[in-house]
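User: Predict the structure for this protein chain, please.
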Amino acid sequence: MCPDDYTRDFEAMFSPLGRRSRGPHFSPDADIHVDADGIHLVVSLELAALDREHLTIGLDERTLVVAGIRRAPKPTSFENCLLKEIEYGGFERRVPLPYAVDPTAVTVEYYDGILIVSLTRDMSDVIVATRVDVVFLMKEGSL
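Assistant: Here is the predicted structure, written as structure tokens:
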């Protein structure tokens, strides 16, 4: 093997570990979609086992901020953990938005461990210089 092969093999083996935060807070994975007319934006976050009372969602200029706490299930009677990949505790995800959104036209849904935040473009596209906290009304059957 040449040195490049060693580097490639090392990175292939350990790079998945580097993607996990393993700190006191984690950042959930997200998908962002925009419709063909560029008016509606949907941000989906992977947040299984989430309780509504531990969730905060807000807008900070052109950034969607989702933060909260995912509590660990009650401990098992087993002594040793053989694999630990699921992250619990505090989380925050700051999602930069491609344009200003209307804070009065935001909806939030939660299905099968996916938090779905639907936003509508603010056609005036004016950036507000101060932080705006948004209170969301959830559809029935959500969180």
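The longest strand covers residues 63-70.
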